[in-house]
Amino acid sequence: MIEETAKVIRVDDNWVWVRAIAQSACGSCQAQKGCGHSLLAKVGQRQIDIQLPRQDYELSVNDDVIIGVPEQAVLRSSLLMYGVPLLLMLVVAGLASVMSLAEGAVILLAFLALISGFFYVSRWSNTARIEEWHPRIIRKALNQETLIPICEIKE
């Protein structure tokens, strides 16, 4: 499960709206202090608002929650989004080459097949309701202050 922390921005009877900040992988790199890409990633962070079905958690505005998406959903959607258009482009380009079309026509048909593949996947993903691919609330995030042990020093 791929997990991310988000903040609840709105709650109603059936839905919870959360705001997550898209983060770069630069936070885990050892060379982040000397890297210009890390600085650009910090400047370019953007907020993403997500509508999620309400579950059995008591949530209120400004609560932190952990949302998650199964790894298989990310892998399958990536393969679908990139694999189908590329495969369609290669098949059309191969067929156009076998038919001895001019090089310009082969390139144009391959490009049109690629665009058609993206359009098809986009339309299909809007109509397909695959519930296990959608993000969901896993749990409420723990308040970080409760994780710090407090010791009393007795004299």
Automatic annotation (TrEMBL):
It holds the Pfam family RseC_MucC. The keyword tRNA processing does not apply. The chain crosses the membrane at residues 79-98, 104-121. InterPro entries: RseC, SigmaE_reg_RseC_MucC. Keywords: Membrane, Transmembrane, Transmembrane helix. PANTHER family: PROTEIN RSEC. This is Sigma factor algU negative regulatory protein MucC. It comes from Bermanella marisrubri.
